[in-house]
Amino acid sequence: MLCGVLFDEEVAVVEPVIVVMGVSGCGKTTVGALTADRLEVPYAEGDDFHPQANIEKMAAGIPLTDEDRLPWLDTVADWLAEHQKTGGVATCSALRRVYRDRLRAKAPQTYFVHLAATREELLRRMTGRLGHFMPTILLDSQLDTLEPLQSDEVGVTLNALQPPSALVSEAVDAWIATHR
Question: What is the value of pTM for the model shown?
Fold first, then answer.
């Protein structure tokens, strides 16, 4: 595979298991799918793992609680764990440290790519989207919940205002640098 990294002279190959994270409108889906294509690994859209009740709640403008999120996070974590040997890229808001810790508990090699943007840019993007269940009224709730990556977390924060191709290159380069 294109993405394996060899350590020393051993044949210990580490495949990328990456979560592209951030609030709604930051570009997770676009960057996640392109990153998976670049790395030639499977891709999973985190929104697809939400139970219908979560989607209906968000569509109604009601923020999710931890009780709502935890089963969804466990499903995303299971997907990541199933792809530890083959590699994979998934999108997941992963807004809080405790949520990321929950993902890492099942998939320890997970690398986080946080796409960060201004509230104004996020609102502009969300307003321009068609057919997505997440209303703009929930943006402030997500921003209030967001805990950026901490220095002891394995990952990188990128400026989501860059073109998707640049974000993919930066994400892949950062993952490779971490695994040298």
Answer: 0.85
